[in-house]
Amino acid sequence: MSAGPLAGFRVLEVGTMLAGPYATMMLADLGAEVIKIEPPTGDISRQVSDDYFASLNRGKRSICLELGTDEGQRRLAELVAESHALLVNLKPSAIHKLGLTYEALQKFNPKIVCVALTGFGLNGGDDPAFDYVVQAATGIAALTGDPDGPPTLPGYSSADNSTGLTAALGLLAQIVSGRGGQIDVSLRDVLLSQLNYHAAAYLNRGVHPQRRPNGAHSFYVPAQLFPTADGHLALFITHDGFWRRFSAEAGLTGFDTMAERSERRDEVLAVVTAALAGDTAKNWEARLKPLGIPAAAVRTLPEALDALPEMVVTAGNYRLVASSVRVEGYQPDYRPPPVLGEYGA
Prior knowledge:
Elements: E1 10-14, H1 19-29, E2 33-38, H2 50-57, E3 61-64, H3 70-81, E4 85-88, H4 92-97, H5 102-105, E5 113-118, H6 131-137, H7 140-143, H8 158-177, E6 181-186, H9 187-194, H10 196-205, E7 223-227, E8 232-236, H11 240-250, H12 258-263, H13 265-276, H14 281-288, E9 295-297, H15 301-307, E10 312-315, E11 318-321
Parallel strand pairs: 1-2, 1-4, 2-3, 4-5, 5-6
Antiparallel strand pairs: 7-8, 8-9, 10-11
């Protein structure tokens, strides 16, 4: 097996909870040496649960530093001089106060890449920016749920995870450039950017996004969740070829073009709902997948994990989900999360 694609790169992390640690764990899975700089009390996520912490910090090393002291700053400078990047997710005021910016650290290493992962930007203030709060503030909660019900949120930290991935991308892009510099990534900006086609429709044509029943797509019809004889099915018909194959299997006629299906949305959904009620979600999945039609029965997380044992790995005493980036000829070394301060000070 080859070394990881990021072997030889050292990344420092001053992170807490989810977004920043998830970003650097992705880098560690790809072979980077990640040193997690923690206060003597540790990252607060250590207090959530052992498996929570492990799910975001496997494969790293831990060092305890009091960054607010002269000694902590001296040791930070030494680490920066020997590293390629520093990723921080703290409040902007703390990032500036502790000197965790490129402006403050370039004197120790002009090629250091400094990534600030915050709620509203490095100069956007210190308002609390938890995942669910930012989803509410950027229009995502208003788009989610049934039209006649309240807005709702997904059952996992989609804002934190998405922002962590974006921060990792920005960090690597600047390293590839060969230049040091400051990267600024915020939860708010990432979520707004992920509303891409909704935002474009509003900005260019004044179209206000609508919340539709069963998570229906705003353009494609039928593309949503449907009840079946047992369970729900996600069906995603994005072009006329899919429709022809689906309608033949389901015994439907008419609505031959995407434009017609969009214009006659309610009629299409009525006939599709009636057809799907004749079989179970899992049976529909088994019938439609060989035809190349995007469809899946709604499963629980345990069911999904049981169906994909190759996505479950062992890191020390923990069973965790594997890296989603697969590199030919390379197998990540899934090491356990670090003991607090095991790398010294």
